[in-house]
């Protein structure tokens, strides 16, 4: 997706595997001088999503559904990045795992982090493996927000 005007999209990812899990997805959404608002309303558990969203001179916002696992980057100028973590999110596989989110602000205008699902007994964040996804949301001169 690419445009020079408002880009607002609701993306629902699915797989044709018999188990209903897995899949490799790449979504690129770019605009300029206009707001970016992309929501992933559904994706299969154990899938691999690479999402890159960007704009400039306007707010950028992305919402990832509960099945997303992997690293993320939020970056802007003039504003602090905003991360909203939805409380009480249930394991999309139904296995009772707990969602762990780790984030840190780098140089004041960027935030990097990781989200993963781990068995309830594990207290440490599990390192992302080769199947981990990636999401980046970038703008300049405006707020940037990620909702997990």
Structure description:
This protein has 148 residues and is mostly beta strands. The chain has one domain (7-147). The chain is 0% helix and 46% strand. The chain contains no helices and eleven strands. It has strands at residues 7-12, 24-30, 36-42, 48-54, 60-63, 70-75, 82-84, 98-106, 110-118, 133-138, 144-147. A six-stranded mixed β-sheet has the order 2-4-10-6-9-8, with no helix packed on it. A five-stranded parallel β-sheet has the order 1-3-5-11-7, with no helix packed on it. 29% of the residues are buried. The model has no long low-confidence stretch (mean pLDDT 90).
List descriptors.
148 residues, mainly beta, 6-stranded mixed beta sheet, globular
Biggest sheet details: 6 strands, mixed
Q: Write down the Rg.
A: 15 Å
The class by helix and strand makeup works out as: mainly beta
Q: Span from first to last CA?
A: 22 Å
User: Can you count the helices?
Assistant: 0
Mean pLDDT: 90
Name the poorly predicted regions: none
Report the order of strands and helices: EEEEEEEEEEE
